Please model this.
Amino acid sequence: AKSAPVVLLTASETEEYRAKAAKLGVQAQVAKPYDPKGVVEEIKNVLKKNKGPLQKILVVDDDPMLVKMLDSRLTASGYEVVPVTDSALAIRKVHLENPDLIVTDIMMPNVDGYQVLEQLKAEGRLHNIPVIMVSALNELDSVVRCIELGAEDYLPKPFDPVLLRARIGACLETKRLRDQEVQLRRELAEW
Model:
């Protein structure tokens, strides 16, 4: 498990002390007397270094304006976005990009969202990637079909961006916990 980043405020500046602190996991040291702005900057630097890779979201929709809007909003929320406007390329992009989550429309030319979802859930390696379906279809049959095919969630268009962000966060947290469980099971099996 990853430990919390540590910034040490200290009166000692000896090399021996610095080496000992680093050995204990201290990532930055600020000697007294210190400038509060300097401490804040040091904390920001440590947090920046400790931030893991961005979670990747594949957005599939034949409407380039919607894809661009989602790309902009999700990127601003701290996600890496892979935009796809041709649904026929969606599965190929999933293989290339290995996203943490997929947001896809249902009604698209060539390959519709149901087909994308079916292909994803049929492939073992892709089966556990959560999928949020978005669609102008606001019929109960469509919602039920998506959930039965394995979608994590369904939002009718037009959707509230705050609600989408919340659903994305919930799906990614569920995936993180699933991945953690798989890893722990693997470690237990080796033990």
